[in-house]
Amino acid sequence: MARVWTTLVLLAASGCVEEHAAASEPRAVAAAPALAPRREAAPPPAVAAPAAAAPAAAAPAAAPGPVVTIAAAGDLVLNPHALRAVLDDGEGGYARLLAGYAQALGEGDLAFLNLEQPLVGDLVPLDPGWPRQDTSRPRRSPVLGATPPLADALSAAGVDVVSVANNHAYDQGYEGLARTLGELSRAGVGAVGGGPDADAAYAPLVVERAGVRIAFVAWSEFFNQRPSGAPVALAARFDDARVAASLARARERADLVVASVHWSRDFAPGAAPSERRLARRLVALGADVILGHGPHVLHEVERLPSPRGDALVAYSLGNVASGMGRTYVTGQRPRGFIHPANVTPEARDGAVLRVRARVEGGRITLAPPTAVPLWTDNNWLAAQRGHVPHRVRVLRLADAAADVRRERLPRVARALGEAVSLE
Known about the structure:
- The protein is an alpha/beta fold.
- Helices cover 24% and strands 25% of the residues.
- The chain is built from 10 helices and 18 strands.
- The protein has helices spanning 80-87, 93-104, 149-157, 173-187, 198-202, 240-253, 273-285, 340-343, 380-384, 402-416, and strands at residues 9-11, 67-77, 110-115, 159-163, 190-192, 205-209, 212-220, 236-237, 256-262, 289-293, 301-306, 309-314, 319-322, 349-360, 363-366, 370-378, 392-396, 421-422.
- Helix 2 packs parallel to helix 3 and helix 3 (149-157) crosses helix 4 (173-187).
C-alpha cells in the first residue's frame, strides 16, 4: 500500500472496548489462606534405644505453570471486488468467507488477527486504487471499508482480539474508525490499535486466559490517508521512550506481552534487516511474542532469546482473506503486464500460527510453534466468463483442490521456515 506517513507510527489498545476495560487495570489477587500452625507432638517416653526414624516422605513435585495458546493470523483486507462478492452472497456471506479460518482455530485458542479495513463503507467511496495498467494516470491508494455485520462474523468465528493499527485505519476517516471500534465492542471483540486519545492509543489491552494475563499492544509503520475532522483516534510518532513506556506498562499488568506490528512493503520476499533489528529491540523492551503483518505474504517465524526466557517473532503472517491474486491459475505463469496484487499466489497463502506459552515463576517457555496453512479460494476468472457468481472464501489448505495443495504446501513451509511445523 502507498506510504503517506513514512515515520513509524505507534498505536495501541482501544479505550473504546468496554468489555476489556476492567481487564486493562491491575487485577487484585486474592491472598492464599494462611496455613494452620503445626501442632507440637507430645515427647515420646524414654526407651533404652531409639527406634529407627521412618524415611522422610518425598516432597510433592510443584505443579507446572499454566499454558496459553495464541492463535495468530495476518491481514483481513477485502478490496471492493472481494467485498462485493461477499455481500452478494447474502446474509451468510461473511460467515462463509471465514468458515475455513474458524475451522483452523482450536478450542481454547486466544485468536488474534489484523483487521485491515474499517467496518463501515458509507463515509468515503470505496476505491480499488492501484493496480492500474494506465500509467499515464496517477496511482491512487485503495480506500477500503466493510459493513458492521463483519464484527459479528469475527466474533462467531472465534476471534478474541483484532488490531486496527494499520495503513488503512483511517480509510473512512476518524468517524469511520470510531464506528469500527464501537461495532467491535458491541460484538464482544477486543480491539487494540485505536482509541479516543493518545493515552488510550498507547495503553495495553489485557485479556486473561487460563489464569494468565496477556497484554496486547499494536502500532503501524504508516497510514494511507490523512484524516480530517474531530480526532477520535490519535497517533504519536514512533519514539523509543514512548514505546518503552508502553511495553513497560504491559509488563506491569500482564504475564505475557504480545506486540502487533504493521510494517514492511507489499509482497516483500522476506523480512528486512531493519525489521529484524527492531524485533530484537522490542524483545529487550518487554515483548514476548511479535506478530508482524503488512506485506500480504508469509515470512519467516524466528525464535529469539529473551531476558524472560523465550521469545518469538512472526515477521509476516500473510493474509487471512483478501481479493489479491485473483487472476492466478495454479501452475500457470501470467502473460503480459499484470500487477503483482492481482496475480501473486503468495497473497492467497495464509496461516494460523499457534504459539503455546508456559508462564512459571516469571519465566516464559515457548513450545515449538505449529501452523495451519490457509488458502483464499477466489473464482474471479470463472465469474468473469459468466459461468458462476463471484465468490471469495477462506479454506484450510488441506481442504483446497489437490493441485493447489501440491503446489502451495511446500511453499508455505519454506516461507514460514524451519522453526514451524505444519498441522
